[in-house]
Design a protein that fits this description.
single chain; 215 residues; alpha/beta; Rossmann fold; two-stranded parallel ribbon; 11 strands; 24% strand; globular; binds NADP nicotinamide-adenine-dinucleotide phosphate
């Protein structure tokens, strides 16, 4: 598969790009927003395309030519205001979904957030972010795309264990970013998880096995 990673310069994004580059099955393309990021990826032999999630749908669509699957792992991060939460986590995701539909890309993997599907679990300071994730996911669920939504728990910068818990409703726990990245890469080969959404936290089941277990 030819896979476009949106948010490729981010922490999970970089790991997904690296794992896809190492895999023999997939071609990877990084979507980034700065010229120097394009140069950085290309110096490592990775195709990179320039587009800003605050730009037009048409510009985002241009990065998707010949692409079979989109991974959305972008985010406004914790150091920007709620304006960026709306413009990146919600509108940026919505524009990427629209661009994928227009470009005829079917497969779409979304990195959402645990509890984004449960308003009663949103803490006051997280409400705008959670609402952004919630409505981006709803838009994807209402699309015709062949989507999988992962709602990871709190992200940790520890080495991955290769073992996860995947479920419709897990406890609100944490997971290393590396395990999220490995799950995304493995998910590309699993058509059984199409048009479904899952909580994703650390667990006791090997990633492939956890994905295989889904009916
Ligand atoms: N933190 C948590 O505990 C947690 C929990 C669950 C889910 N999540 C979600 O997990 C995902 C990945 O997290 P992460 O830690 O890997 O994120 P990250 O390191 O903050 O990376 C986010 C990426 O999005 C890119 N981005 C931001 N604005 C953009 C724009 N206008 N156009 C194009 N790209 C833009 C950033 O680009 P630059 O590199 O140029 O800044 C960055 O590379 C995010 O969606 C996050 O919301 C986080």
């Amino acid at each position: 598969m030819n896979v476009l990673v949106v948010g490729a310069n981010g922490q999970i994004g970089k790991m997904v790009v690296e794992k896809l580059q190492e895999s023999k099955q997939h071609e990877v393309r990084a979507m980034v927003r700065k010229e120097e990021q394009v140069a950085d990826f290309e110096s490592k032999g990775i195709t990179a395309k320039l587009a800003d999630l605050e730009g037009s749908v048409a510009d985002i669509q241009l990065t998707m030519e010949g692409v079979d699957a989109v991974v959305f792992s972008a985010g406004s991060g914790g150091s920007t205001g709620y304006d960026k939460t709306i413009m990146i986590d919600l509108d940026g995701a919505a524009k990427t979904i629209e661009a994928a539909e227009k470009a005829g890309v079917k497969r779409f993997i979304m990195v959402s957030s645990i509890a984004s599907n449960h308003r009663e679990k949103w803490s006051d300071d997280m409400k705008p972010y959670m609402a952004a994730k919630h409505y981006a996911d709803q838009m994807l669920e209402k699309s015709d795309l062949d989507y999988t939504i992962f709602r990871p728990g709190m992200l940790k910068d520890e080495p991955g264990t290769g073992k996860i818990q995947l479920g419709k409703e897990t406890a609100i726990e944490s997971i290393p970013r590396e395990d999220v990245a490995s799950t995304i890469v493995s998910a590309l080969d699993h058509s059984n998880i199409s048009r479904q959404a899952f909580d994703l936290i650390s667990g006791n089941t090997e990633i492939k096995e956890a994905l295989n277990q889904i009916g």
